[in-house]
Amino acid sequence: MNAIPLILMAGLGVLALYLLRASEQYRAGAIRTLAFRSGLHYLGNALPKSLILEGTPFHHASKVWNVVDGEPRGTRIMAFDCRVGVGRYSWRRTVIAVESDDNVLGHLLLPPDMTVGRSGRWQVLYRPRAVFALRGAGVTPVDELEATLNAIKSASARTLRE
Hints:
Layout: H1 4-38, E1 41-44, E2 61-70, E3 76-84, E4 91-99, E5 115-119, E6 122-126, H2 142-161
Antiparallel strand pairs: 1-2, 2-3, 3-4, 4-6, 5-6
Helix pairs in contact: 1-2
């Protein structure tokens, strides 16, 4: 029996795990930077108790990470990455939540694949679950997340002035 194919497969597996971990760390660093630039706080893996997700697909999220929270321009905004479900049938998403009685998200020009839900005073913006998706699908790229957060801050500032 030749051990070279086994060694190569093991090496590729270790390399794949390393690249996955490195990409997750890179994303966390980019979101920390985004939070700092946007006037938000990076909370890591903890959702504040004040965020209510009842009635949304994220009410029973199995894992939450890259949580940012703050009140720029007087409107509370949170964004986080999460996994819903466990194992093979789990799915990942980036969720943006805005605490407001006004329909702040209704005033935005959003991509057609985004959905707005509501849970109490919170409006929740996310991409719905896809029938088929790769592991990283559904997690919003950091530049798109920043653009959306900036649009929400601008819309909330207009709503407050009116």
